[in-house]
Write a structure and sequence with these properties.
mainly alpha; Arc Repressor Mutant, subunit A; Tetracycline Repressor, domain 2; 185 residues; 77% helix
């Protein structure tokens, strides 16, 4: 029961902080359907909760993205698998991306989370560059633009998926088609 409650709090924190990083802990507790007191039995403060969320993302989301990168030697397959991995990670991917993009984040290569983020970003950059050279992606678009579009497509897909009105496989196809057509020459 304790582990289930803790997991629910972590998932709720990722979801809430993804929408509003400065949201109060009471909102996390409400979203997890626990009292604030219960939340504090598991986490002493906001910093500890955010750190645990980062570790959770490291275990699941970063692993999924690295697996997607290593899934093929074909850049187009890698790119599609990265998009699908991001969708499968849901709010974890969005929060992971926002943590490293937010103002005030101290990025350092000595931090494993930052090093993993750099590996994923550099791999993404190499994939995009290879696809631009082969004419699959518009050469005039910057990697930063494409990365933000990628994150935006993932966020939109996760939001639509949460409504339950469209099947998961259709949503993933819509996401991939929207993304690849949006960056085509």
């Amino acid at each position: 029961m304790l582990t289930e409650t803790r997991s629910r709090i972590i998932a709720s924190a990722i979801e809430v902080f993804n929408e509003d990083y400065s949201a109060p802990l009471q909102k996390v507790a409400d979203n997890a359907h626990v009292t604030r007191r219960t939340l504090h039995r598991h986490f002493k403060d906001r910093n500890e909760l955010v750190a645990v969320c980062e570790r959770e993302m490291e275990v699941s989301c970063k692993k999924a993205m690295i697996t997607a990168i290593n899934s093929s030697n074909e850049p187009l397959v890698q790119l599609k698998n990265m998009l699908l991995a991001g969708i499968d990670c849901g709010a974890k991917y969005s929060f992971f991306h926002k943590l490293h993009q937010r103002e005030g984040h101290t990025h350092t290569k000595k931090n494993k989370d930052c090093a993993d983020y750099d590996f994923i970003y550099n791999s993404f950059t190499n994939i995009i560059t290879a696809l631009q050279k082969s004419g699959v992606i518009n050469e005039k678009m910057t990697v930063q633009w494409i990365q933000n579009l990628h994150a935006g497509i993932i966020n939109s897909t996760v939001n639509v998926s949460d409504t339950g009105k469209t099947s998961k496989s259709n949503i993933k196809n819509f996401a991939w088609n929207s993304f690849i057509k949006g960056i085509a020459p």
